[in-house]
Design brief:
With 289 residues, the chain is of the alpha/beta class. The protein has two domains: 115 residues, 2-Layer Sandwich (Nucleotidyltransferase, domain 5), CATH 3.30.420.40; 162 residues, Nucleotidyltransferase, domain 5. The protein is 46% helix and 19% strand. The protein is built from 14 helices and ten strands. A hairpin with a 5-residue loop joins strand 2 and strand 3. The longest helix is centred in the last third of the chain and has 18 residues. It starts with a strand and ends in a 7-residue tail after the last helix.
Amino acid sequence: MLLIAESGSTKCDWILIDRAGNRTLTHTMGFNPFFHNEDIIESELIKNELLFKNAGLIESIRFYGAGASSEARNKIVENGLRRVFRNNADIVVDHDLKAAAISTANDNPGIACILGTGSNSCYFDGKDVMEMVPALGYILGDEGSGAYFGKIMLTKYLYHKLPIEIAEDLEKEYGINKEKIFDGVYNKPNPNVYLASFMKFVYKHREHPFFKDLLYKGLSSFISIHVWCYQNYREVPVHFVGSIAYLFKDTLEEVARNFRFNIGQIIRKPADNLADYYCKKLGYPMPKA
């Protein structure tokens, strides 16, 4: 059996593929080695009935995740996986940027961008990824991400700078106040996920002038930092994965027109495309149409 995993900071999508080409989708919390150790990874995997039941049958695992960008951090994820799955399984752990590149460009050159809970970009030559600008995380960077927009909105709310009708609806929908915001940001785990959780509210009000301006400026900031850094950004397609890119596609396309570059694919989740890619590479049957 082949197991494909694509993990953001919020959620991990798993696709289990048997030798007949049958696919089963399941989910766990997202695993990011910046925040999660081997014990957490093991305990969460054991809770998943599908994964735990088939653990001894899995021959190959391809795991791509946020934060898996160094040998030491990748080893945390690999060790957590090996505690649950066959010790001799072929396990590859790599960065979510590589997943974004493979799932959109396959083996072709292009620029791959992530716009989800966090944000990042790379140039993909068809084989390897290259980063020109580092991802700085939700405190210092993550321009155009869910955490970025959530942080700006909550800051505006606390400074009494939100339009009154938006502030009132935010309070009504979330029962929000300064104490609850501080608790979510400073006391509870994964504040980046907490900040990004408000994107449902942003989407609800996406046609409001305040959010239209916020979204355009935030996505423009991402492009100016994370796409302009590649000299050939107008010569190759610029691909996007992630919920922010997908949900706010219209604004992203407007930014692309004004910045004069060509968008390639915009996909919400890379897992299905990754499954197709590795089925072909590893000799598993493709699903029937």
